[in-house]
Fold this protein.
Amino acid sequence: MKFSGKYIINAPRQQVWEALNDEKILKETIFGCQKIAWVSDNKLEIEILVNLGVMKKSFIGDLELANVKKAKKYTLKGSGRGGILGKVHASADIELKDYEQENGIRGTYLEFTAIGGGSSAIMSLGKTIIGSSAQRIIDRFFERFAQAMGVEITSLKKE
């Protein structure tokens, strides 16, 4: 499954970068996040409670930053284990660029593309259900992210 998004965040690029790497902001931002902690310079451990309608399940996983170009871009690779539901995995490329709006306000253009999937137990729920839920969660993540930063965000329409 593929996901993507483009956003304008009304904050300087360095501030957005720092927030993307701040455990407190991430915990507030990631829906269902029970725990998140840096375990090395480029790895986080995370626990997320996922509500799949008929059941709630905790996924315990790892996030790793690769191809890091500070305050510009990185690849976020993640995997999680959810007991009887099996495993999930995803990889997202996140890129930040300076952006000046027509009204002169400077901000950050954030673009991401992600690919994700899971074991047969999760995929049996249906790609359509999982895909639309995941895209909503991603969009809501960025709304909550901007709220946690105390700034405005604009989602750019898909082309």
